[in-house]
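PROTEIN DATA CARD
Card holder: RING-type E3 ubiquitin transferase
Chain length: 1283
Origin: Arabidopsis thaliana
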Amino acid sequence: MAEDSLRVGMISSGLAVLLNGEDAKENSSKARIVPHFDYSGHRPLERTIEFIFGLAEKSVGPLDGQVDSSLIRAVIKNQFSKLHGDLDVSVSQREGISVVHHGVGPPIVGLEEFSICGDIRIVKPPLVLESLALFSSARANACIWKGKWMYEVALETSGIQQLGWATLACPFTDQKGVGDADDSYAFDGRRVSKWNKEAEPYGQSWVAGDVIGCCIDLNCDEIYFYRNGVSLGAAFTGIRKLGPGFGYYPAISLSQGERCELNFGAYPFKYPVDGFQPLQEAPTRFSFATELLRCFSRLLDRPDRSLADTLSRLRRFASVEELFCPVSSAICDEFFYILEQDPLLAEYLGRGAFLSFLLETFRTQAPHDSSSLDKVLDVFLEFPQSHLIFEHVVNALACGCKTATLILTECPYSGPYPYLALACHLFKREELMVQWWRSLHFEFLFEGFLSCRSSNKHDLQHLMPVVWWPGSSEDISYESSMGFTISALSEAINKIEEKQRNLCLLVIQFIPPVSPPQLPGSAFRGFLQNLLLKNRGADRTLAPSGVTRNSVLVSLFSVILHFLSEGFAMLKSSEAVHHNVGFLHRGGQQKFPLSLFLKNDPHRADITRLGGLFSHISKSYPTDDQEEEIMRWEEGCMDDEQNRVTHATEQKPCCCLAYDTDLTKSLKDRGKNTAQSSRGRCSSIPERSSHVAAECSAGSFSEEIDDKPSTSNQSDPDFGYRPVRFMRTALQESRISSAILSEEELLDALLLLYHIAVAPNFKQASYYMSHQSQSISLLEETDKQIRERASCDQIKRLKEARNNYKEDVMDCVRHSAWFRISLFSRWKQRGMYALCMWVVQLLLVLSKMDSVFVYIPEFYLESLVDCFHVLRKSDPPFVPSTTFIKQGLSSFITFVVTHFNDSRISNTDLKDLLLQSISVLVQYKEYLEAFENNEAATRHMPAALLAAFDNRSWIPVTNIFLRLCKGSGFSSLKNGESSFSSTVFQALLRDACINDGELLSTFLNRLFNTLSWTITEFSVSVREMQEKYQVMEFQQRKCCVIFELSSNLARVLEFCTYAMPQAFLAGTDTNLRRLTELILFILNHMTSAVDDEFFDLSVRSLRRQGQPSEKVSRGILLAPLVGIILNLLEASEDSKPKQQHDVIGLFASMDCPDTVYYGFQYLLEYNWDGCVSGDDAYVKKLGQLENFLSHLINRASSQEPERKEESFNKDTTDIEDNTCCICYAGEANAMIAPCSHRSCYGCITRHLLNCQRCFFCNATVIDVIRDKEEEEEEDDDGHKRST
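Structure generated from the sequence above:
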């Protein structure tokens, strides 16, 4: 139809020829637009019919009377058939192919059932396949031995698939398939390899939505593969020639869960290759039917309206409108007659010429010609056979959305947009919507409409040919070029998402014609539930078979998020649009049906809840009496008055503030963000302005539910400032109103879609953005080295490395830009922020009800936390970090600090997730201030953190302590760290330890054990590195990580001695003794086991990885040890001698005094540059340490004679019967009950910190009974000890 689309002066080319007449034959260069007739009797009616049907001049004789459809049918059967009837007779040569045919009718190319190895399921007839076995293979029933042939494979998934050609001699097993034997050739885009017994690199990586063309040229003995119409080059040459019956068969092999659609020629190829024929022969009458559609197109193709009206009034040209009804009816009558003659023609035309005809009529770009398309639909839908062709049209549109490629020059109307726009217009017709809904593959096709083809590295290179980033050495024009590219792609994505929303809204509005009658939204609800049911387990490492492609789930997430955030304005009248506010921004009283949690619906049967599996928790918390309740609360009821920010308060949440950003004008500022790349305007939708906040009032998608009397009021004394009246439950209304698709249902599905599909995309985006920064650093470092190096060999090597780094940077910039376009548009950020506000309020309200809280699905919590941090780190930033939490999400802090140690949450990974959130947030000053201003944080977090320091959570708890206690140690003398410390939480931690001695004892015991373990592990790792000839980078990283953890633990211990010195100086000496042993243990490893060579090696390693070399500085671990000693000495000076232990005496009593002296002397002589500043405070601190060492030497010297005498006595006398058999140093002065075994009290006390069983018999210890003499001595000294 290309020739019909040409225009001459706004008049169609066909009409121009009609008007030019004989003059065009004589002198085409002087063609005039004149009516094609003369005044000698050639009437305009005949000439118009000749133009419509493309007939020769005067081939239609004079017509008498009115033109009707029977007359036009006669023209078609006579003149038109004579002209075009021979098109289908000239069948192309098809020598060299044979198709195994079973039954009657024309031969159809398909899979040969007996060739199938494994388990292949037909997802959608005829040839949408899925492998259910680990590896499945199959051949087609077409054998070729001569000529040039091809078939196409549309990829539904992008995993391991081997596509190509094989002979009958190729064996198929559960491990071998196409390409794994002689005379067997395949391409695998997942592994980017070609296969013929062995794999070789070939082609490009493929993605879901790619169309792979498999071509074989048996004239030249070559095999080619194409990706989306682009040749990947000759894959195989010199393949063996075979004779008839022993040729090559199309063959595929699929790994488990892989899906694809085969097209052997049943419908036109999407990317045909010149010279290659389809295996399936085209239907015989398709050319004639295509010409009929061209005639219909001419019937719609009108000239310039003013000229046509003039000629029509002068009777020089018959109006096409006058002939439309009879001509269109006759064309359709003949068209459907042809379709009935050949059962294969409907699919071939519906997915080929007829679809092109509809797209051309409607126009692929806006403004669309809806009136012309409606005229076509009116005519075609009058015929009962129309369902045959429109069934395939819908299939073709869905497939087109899956495989359409974004083309920069066609933006913004590129990719799936034309197919979605046409589908939306078609489904406005009730008969077409009913036909689609009644089809067996309604949901499969719906998924197709929501699909978007992914983009790999090569695709992004075509979409973004020019790349720029802050600091790049590229031409300055690249910045603006990339800005324009980002803007164009952003607009294209917005257009596609808009049409997807329109389509979903049509399905929501659709009322299925079934009995009993259903309400709007039932069809969409069924699709949504079945989709979620099918994708159970999609978030696992090994996803189950049948999982929907990621783009479908992401598109559906975007659709629902827009509905809930921006509202259903398209449902409202124009005068009510400004009152329509999205569900998430509505504010006021909120409600949520508890049935979404308490019912074990099939689509959520395997979903784990906070309390565990549904079957388990239902035994402890029956749900029968609560299923029909609705939870109601007032927005912000869980926040204290000081931090409360709602849609009703004067200060509005961040999602209702106007932080508009012109992304195309801020490319230079992106260097300040995490990732440095270009971005365009992310949304063509008008940004929500600040005045929208004032409109956050009533308005709902479903009918508002009337308030019911409260049935229960529950609160927690821990949150006494929260008015109980804001929370209540009400009985649900009648079953009829609950059947309406509610916004709460959409919210529930939205969170699950985020969890299984969107969160992985954000994770991938985070990787590219962080990796981009690292790659830019490496590129800049390499450029610097090139400028400094003089050696030719080194420069050559550095330039090669630079090219690799630059390619890596460009790839990261393109991917980062693509993720910003598709994920970080402004309206999505607004919606996600409001979503976080809504969900955290819901979780806090339901946390007051144990019987409901345990039923909340885990993905609610996971999606909330992930979405929060995605917004916090988003690039470009959604809002300034100073207001991110303060204006709307202070309740998030309330939730994480009160639930990271919640016993009702059975999954420890979830509690770790909350703990890690705290660990991340307190690293930033503005977020730390939010914690200090949060009442729940100040009341709950200190004691909860101390209790959470265990074998599993000690790393995030250590990081939190490290940030809260920053500025209180010896190393804080550097850079004035104390200005960033939290004096609020330091005081709260001190109070928590003082008020709960048992909690403090348990915490210190775990801290001692953990630090001892990390130092030991570090020492072992260093020895392994020193013993091996070649040190691996992984080992270096492991040592660096363990060393950093040890340093952090030591700094936490330093804070304990600073804030709570009496925990070591008073009471039992167990803590002080363990602390002394640990200090000497660390000093011994730092001064003897670890040499300078290792630290130099680690520093170089970390520099290559882009990390600061100070992380493995020996002083990072030694500085806390100095601080610990000085803290204890200063506390000792401020206390009365009788109320404290002797610190110096305890160090002096340790074995190997020479080792002790050497360790402290090393601390004095160590170069502290880089760890502390060289001011007066630093000098004073070291002076105190020097005094400590001198006192230690004096004390050790005075105890030397006593030590020697004691040693001599041990060598000359037998050990007394009453000596402790554990330490052999003290007297066995305590007895374990009930087993009566004896040991010294110190050994028993220390053992019971970690184990409650006897040393000797493993009996459970009930009590420890000390000798009376020992107790009396302690009473005299004023040192009463407790067990």
